[in-house]
Amino acid sequence: MSIARLMQQAAAGVPTGGGDVWTDPDLANASYDSVSFSVAGQDTSPQGLFFKPDGTKVYVVGTTGDDINEYDLSTAWDISSASYSQNFGVSSQEANPSGVFFKPDGSKMYVTGFTTGKEVYQYSLSSAWDISTASYDSVSLDVSTEDSTPRSGFFSQDGLHIFVCGLNNDTIYQYDLSLAWDLSSASYSGNSFSVTTQESVPTCLFISPSGDKLFVVGAVNDTVYQYSLSTAWDISAASYDSISFSVTSQETVPTGLFFKDDGSKMYIVGTSNDTIYQYSTVTPAAPSWTDPDLANASYDSVSFSVGDCLGMDFSEDGSNLYVNNLTFPGGDITQYSLSTPWDISTASSTGNSLDTDAQEDVPYGIKFSPDGTKLLVAGDLTDSIYEYTLSTAWDISTATYSNNSLSVSAQETSVDDLAFNSDGSKLFVLGSSSDSVLQYSLASNYSLASASYDAVSFSVSAQTNSPAGLFFSPNGDKLFVTSNNPDSVFQYSLSSSFDLSTASYDSVSFSIGSQTNSNQKVRFKSDGSKMYISDNTTDTIYQYSTD
To answer: Model pTM greater than 0.70?
Structure first.
């Protein structure tokens, strides 16, 4: 940033340093933190909220008291640490205040109302961020010509634009200010953007600090929607990203929306529960993979017994375990939740399952796509692979057959397990009639539509005549195969990633005979530090350390 730009922002009251760097939220993968704070003691109809830039204060506007309530957070950005401080009434200006916004230095406050004047009102604070020192500037912006029910207002970083969310027309309107942060200099720009296709009752908006992302929450669908602005701070340049996140499990009438200054947390307030809810919106980076030290692996003396077990797979974060079976009541693939990710001793049934009998009675192997929306099932009876789509990622109860399948009978008549390459463009199938790993190309990633055999295979017969389980390292340079005879895991290297023609045996193996002896499948933790082996005789999954 240039010195001239810094001076311009400083003159406008924009902080020029000290804050965390914003990263666009991963809204599609947001998750509730199970952290909340009730504001019902102050207002039973909270409408909007705003955080001080350092996260040590939050302000909530409500229509019960027609006021702004100020709360202190003993731990910045942790809403569970909030405590009530004081309030400031705005009833002399507005009978139904619905939005609140502060200038970045805390010297100005702006309140949006939808009843008295359909306006945004401007206040000055003689002591920054202390609302007890607020006073009305006798300055306001009338937006009734554009929308008769304004719900919230949001300023650009430099104070030269204000955006108003209008409920009556389901539209965001842009106003330009010739004097930064001075509403008396504001006028309608003629730019607007309708969100009616996504939400017919929009209640609040938030724009990223760079002005290129817009987030809108509404009270009909109880969902936050994400939009991109191809020109920063130009609302007419907005388009829907087809990305959203539902908050209906916490709040059915969301009225306020705010993000932490670095984009990693999202906060929702609503009138059904009069509570602020906290969410995580940045997916933590997965630990990097380190090749397992298979030769020195050790059993953790940790296991998980299930009713029937042909094989298993995990969700990417290790919080879900899926077991494919023959006789489990209600479904051939069952889902378990791990309260401690990757620790199978903490597994418990979710009650979710998928019945594959219409396609395959003996699902020997299962493998999910990394986003949890695709599942491929290897069938031993039909010598085929079947594709399922999950409408809710990782929820096996939402899986439906996609009508895509791949017969491998021309290459293999005893299908045992399967794996993908890193982008889902290659499928690998392990078979015990050929004692080989077979390679196929997928025209559509993680989908069997137009799949074809590459005429590439790799034989493991020198190590075993009864292979059962298959796993590739994430970068495709290591291959692991389990065997029923002998009861071992064998390790192979590929000099060219995911290219079976370059595979060779490492002369490295690990015996699992002390725990298992039948139809073992193998999976690893995402960082390679844990190995899991399933056994069809004991119907148990065993956990090993491999780091």
So the answer is: no
The CATH 2.130.10.10 domain(s) of the chain lie at 294-545
Type and span of the H or E element at 276: strand 275-280
* Inter-residue contact 239 to 228 (CB < 8 Å): yes
CATH 2.120.10.30 in the chain: give the residue spans: 25-280
H or E element that contains 31:
strand 31-38
Cα gap 437→427, rounded to integer Å: 10
DSSP-assigned states of every residue in 165-227: EETTTTEEEEEEESSTT-GGGEEEEEEEEE-TTT-SSEEEEEE-TTS-EEEEEETTTTEEEEE
CATH topology of domain 294-545: Methylamine Dehydrogenase; Chain H (2.130.10)
How confident is the model over 49-92, as pLDDT tens digits?
999 999 999 999 999 999 999 999 999 999 999 999 999 999 99
Return all residues near 404 (Cβ < 8 A) that are at least 6 apart.
386, 387, 447, 448, 449
Secondary structure in 3-state letters for 70-82: EEEECCCCCHHHE
Exposure on the CB side of residue 283, measured as CA atoms within 13 A: 11
Q: What per-residue confidence (pLDDT) applies to 123?
A: 98
Report which of residues 126 and 329 the model is more confident about.
126
Q: Is the pLDDT of residue 322 over 60?
A: yes
25-280 maps to CATH 2.120.10.30: yes
Give dist(CA 293, CA 287) in Å, integer. 17
Report which residue type is found at 169: N
Burial class (CB in 10 A: 0-12, 13-18, 19+), 503: buried
Number of H helices, E strands in the chain: 1, 40
3-state secondary structure of 345: helix
Contact of 123 with 129, CB cutoff 8 Å = no
- Per-residue pLDDT, 11: 43
